[in-house]
Amino acid sequence: MNSESDLRAVGPRIRMMMPQLTPLETKVVETVFALRDFSEETALKDLADLSGVSEAMVVKIAKKLGFAGYRDFRQAVAHYNRLPTAEMHQELSPEDTSREIVEKVFRTSMHALEETLAILDYAAFDRAADLLVNGRQRDFYGLGGSAQIARDAAHKFLRIGVRASVHDDTHMMMMSAALLGEQDVVVAFSHSGNSTSVIEAAQLARRNGARIIAITNYGSSALAKASDIVLCSTAQGSPLMGENAAARIAQLNILDALFVVVAQRDYASAERNLDRTMSAVASKRKDKF
Length: 289
Known about the structure:
By secondary structure, the protein is of the alpha/beta class. Helix content is 58%, strand content 8%. The longest helix has 22 residues, at 98-119. It starts with a helix and ends in a 7-residue tail after the last helix.
């Protein structure tokens, strides 16, 4: 793991594995990232003592996270912490000034974008674009904040003549899924990847032959396992902001990129439809007096 892109992916890949850890294992990982002086010199015994676990437990966690052992884990995390972008993410505090809040929120979003780019699976991205281009029916599923991302994406695609239906109700998602077939595609949005309504609809659609694209923050989530293609965002959480806010920015950028690639597949048609849809709403704007 030598390139900056590989190193930048260390933090996100560990965070994506966190839902698979036990509370005690999670505590150990959180202790590591809370240590500002964690380095390649940090002894296994010292970390075990700080975390209140055995040395064997620390080694087990490192392997569970995909590392060869503690030394491999320690080196990767130490190098990740030295990256220029590692300091972008800063915790919000109730005592922050408005200026500090604005700067921290922007930096958190920048950090999420940098790290999401580092872990993006380009092969999966291209397959997702192909499915959206060739799909007969495109249904987008999401609840709450994820539904807003789905609507934004559907709006963009409609501008170039790629029609998609957005369903943000449990019953509507299930009815949609029941009618889909082999030529259809579902884009399922869930930050946690554990929204049962979205998962069940995706599973039903898949049983009926539809292909499923998951947009989530966790590549090992239940939704990811129920999908054909997984596009992951990543963002660090904070007590005041949570991780959803920054992840939303990253997911919107993934969909923006998908929109551009889908348009590129048939640029002449996309350009023609964009002109038509823009002309259709031009009379509703007050740009000229």
